[in-house]
């Protein structure tokens, strides 16, 4: 049976997006955050937090890319991706309900939910490819 999307596309796209987001957050938070989110990053602890987030995003993005191209990592990378996307989307939903609506964050939440559902679909649809 022919599949609509290649099995690895979800991991490749989310890997690239998360790596770029990590670089965006972490390389120059002093300059990027005031321009994008209208707040200053002056405290050392806050700079450290953004660089730590960058490290998490880079590590996960690289793992997902490895999972897209190495059969033995595909299932665990996809499951990791589903948990990450679901966790981030859940946090955004809590913020939406608690703090109020923000269009850019709502769009991000919808995209994260799409990647999460797509990952679940892949885990089910490509079950016969896993564990060989």
UniProtKB/TrEMBL annotation:
The record, for InterPro entries, names: DUF4345 (IPR025597)
Q: Which UniProt keywords apply?
A: Membrane, Transmembrane, Transmembrane helix
* Top-level taxon: Bacteria
Family annotation (Pfam families): DUF4345 (PF14248)
The membrane spanning regions, by residue number, are: 9-28, 48-66, 78-98, 104-123
Listed name of the protein: DUF4345 domain-containing protein
- Per the UniProt record, the source organism is Maribacter aurantiacus
């Amino acid at each position: 049976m022919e599949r609509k999307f290649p099995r690895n596309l979800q991991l490749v796209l989310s890997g690239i997006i998360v790596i770029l987001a990590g670089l965006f957050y972490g390389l120059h938070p002093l300059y990027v955050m005031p321009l994008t989110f209208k707040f200053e990053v002056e405290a050392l602890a806050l700079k450290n937090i953004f660089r730590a987030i960058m490290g998490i995003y880079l590590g996960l993005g690289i793992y997902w890319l490895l999972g897209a191209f190495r059969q033995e990592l595909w299932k665990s990378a996809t499951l990791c991706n589903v948990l990450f996307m679901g966790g981030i989307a859940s946090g955004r939903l809590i913020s939406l309900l608690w703090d109020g609506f923000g269009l850019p964050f709502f769009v991000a939440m919808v995209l994260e939910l799409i990647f999460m559902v797509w990952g679940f679909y892949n885990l089910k649809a490509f079950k016969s490819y896993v564990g060989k």
